[in-house]
């Protein structure tokens, strides 16, 4: 049997130290370690962060800063800020990685597939023709071509106007 070795992913299945209690997204919202947390941008009412378990390279989560479960729970200002940040991230992904398309999704509640149902988040997933290969179909495995740090650096260059 062939094996695909990815020892750097050990941190996801056996993290050092105890898991922190409470909402991971609220912890990231309060953190000031944007690089460590892979936070790409903060606005008054929202923030964008790389997904630690990406579907494709560049998979971004856009979250309201306030802990809410539904879109309806956002004020008009929060909702507009949240969606405006999604547009900004879409433009940055276009510039940095030139995807052929995007998937956008919001899973409301565990039954809808939300891994963290208590804190609303929008998935912005860049897609390329042929990005799903036999590994996904036959083995249920995604092959990621870049590390989170590499993707973060590329997007930060774009967001900071270096490209």
What does this structure look like?
With 163 residues, this protein is of the alpha+beta class. The protein has one domain (19-159): HIT family, subunit A (2-Layer Sandwich), CATH 3.30.428.10. It contains six helices and five strands, in the order H-H-H-E-E-E-H-E-E-H-H. The protein has helices spanning 10-13, 24-30, 34-37, 76-97, 134-139, 148-159, and strands at 39-42, 46-50, 60-64, 101-105, 122-127. Strands 1-2-3-5-4 form a five-stranded antiparallel β-sheet, sandwiched between helices. Helix 4 packs across helix 6 (148-159). The longest helix is centred in the middle third of the chain and has 22 residues, at 76-97. The mean pLDDT is 87.
Write the layout of secondary structure elements.
Blueprint (H helix, E strand, L loop, with lengths): L9 H4 L10 H7 L3 H4 L1 E4 L3 E5 L9 E5 L11 H22 L3 E5 L16 E6 L6 H6 L8 H12 L4
Antiparallel strand pairs: 1-2, 2-3, 3-5, 4-5
Helix pairs in contact: 4-6
Widest sheet: strand ordering: 1-2-3-5-4
Spatial gap, N to C terminus: 43 Å
Domain count: the total is 1
The chain-level mean pLDDT equals 87
Low-confidence stretches: none
| Percent range of helical residues | 25-40%
What's the quaternary structure here? single chain
Strand content: 15-25%
CATH class: Alpha Beta
**Which structural category do the helix and sheet elements fall into?**
alpha+beta
Described by the principal axes of the CA atoms, the overall outline is globular
Counted by DSSP, the helix tally is 6
Helix-strand pattern: HHHEEEHEEHH
């Amino acid at each position: 049997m062939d094996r695909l070795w990815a020892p750097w992913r050990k941190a996801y299945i056996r993290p050092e130290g105890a898991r922190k209690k409470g909402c991971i997204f609220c912890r990231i919202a309060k953190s000031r370690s944007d690089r460590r947390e892979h936070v790409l941008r903060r606005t008054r009412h929202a923030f964008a962060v790389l997904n630690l378990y990406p579907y494709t390279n560049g998979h971004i989560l856009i979250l309201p800063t306030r802990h809410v479960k539904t879109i309806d729970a956002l004020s008009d200002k929060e909702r507009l800020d949240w969606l405006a940040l999604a547009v900004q991230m879409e433009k940055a992904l276009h510039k940095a990685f030139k995807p052929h398309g995007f998937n956008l999704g919001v899973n409301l509640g565990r039954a809808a597939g939300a891994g963290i149902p208590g804190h609303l988040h929008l998935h912005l997933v860049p897609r390329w023709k042929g990005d799903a290969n036999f590994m996904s179909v036959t083995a249920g495995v995604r092959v990621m071509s870049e590390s989170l740090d590499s993707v973060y650096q590329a997007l930060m260059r774009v967001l900071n106007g270096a490209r």
